[in-house]
Design goal:
Elements (H helix, E strand, L loop, with lengths): L9 E10 L12 E2 L7 E9 L5 E7 L8 E2 L17 E10 L13
Antiparallel strand pairs: 1-6, 2-5, 3-4, 3-6
């Protein structure tokens, strides 16, 4: 939750992550990603987290740009880093900016 007072602008973020149910011996390779937020979102990113807690960027985009699928990050020297298997976690981060003078509640639980 973010609350702004006296004209201040607050930048805050919300992370989420999940283990995908992927059969053993199978992998997924992302080829595109999509970000979507409400009007406060200024950046959305998607990551792969491996067992050693190394984070690999799938992609990042401004969610206020036209909603579209964007190609994955090509900055990776090793294409295997973009493979998702049952031992990796997919994580996302939404960065938001608010100058509101009232509470900004997030998610279904309104936290």
């Amino acid at each position: 939750m973010a609350v702004c007072h006296h004209g201040l602008v607050i930048v805050f973020f919300r992370d989420s992550a999940c283990n995908l149910v992927i059969p053993e011996n199978q992998t997924l390779t992302p080829f595109a990603f999509l970000t979507h937020t409400h009007g406060l979102g200024i950046m959305g990113s998607i990551w792969i987290v491996d067992q050693s807690k190394d984070w690999t960027l799938i992609g990042r985009a401004n969610p206020q740009d036209p909603q579209s699928f964007y190609p994955v990050s090509t900055d990776q020297e090793d294409p295997d880093l973009l493979r998702i298997d049952r031992n990796r976690v997919v994580a996302s981060r939404c960065v938001m900016k608010s100058g509101r003078s009232r509470k900004t509640m997030q998610g279904n639980l309104k936290m």
